[in-house]
Request: fold
Amino acid sequence: MNDYTKYSIDPEIKFKHLEIIDILKLIEECTQKWQNISLCNVNDSVVRLAVIEGEFHWHKHEKEDEFFFVIEGLLLIDLEKKLIELKPNQGFTVPKGVMHRTRAPTRTSVLLIEKSSIKPTGD
Reply:
């Protein structure tokens, strides 16, 4: 099983420019424990919706920063020497090259913004 299957990461962009994206409806439609949907492109970045419960593996992105914004739930971001707790309406950027792991003790919805060149499972 590859990481895209294990975590249900869909790299295909779902919405074009000038289309309305109903985030709450998309969250309601998510049925798996770890779903990541690529919503749209903004310049050379991609906006993703993650609806997650459980933990991701430790990884890093050598060339790309990664921004997390919690919609609902609680997102824990483990860094090598620090734990970040994000509650609804809070955001955090993990700089490129920083080893990290995300965890959600309960169902959590997060918007991510990252360069479209990023490999979501890490380098």
The chain has one domain: 3-115. Confidence is low (pLDDT under 50) at residues 1-5. The beta strands are 9-10, 34-42, 45-55, 66-72, 75-79, 82-86, 91-94, 100-115.
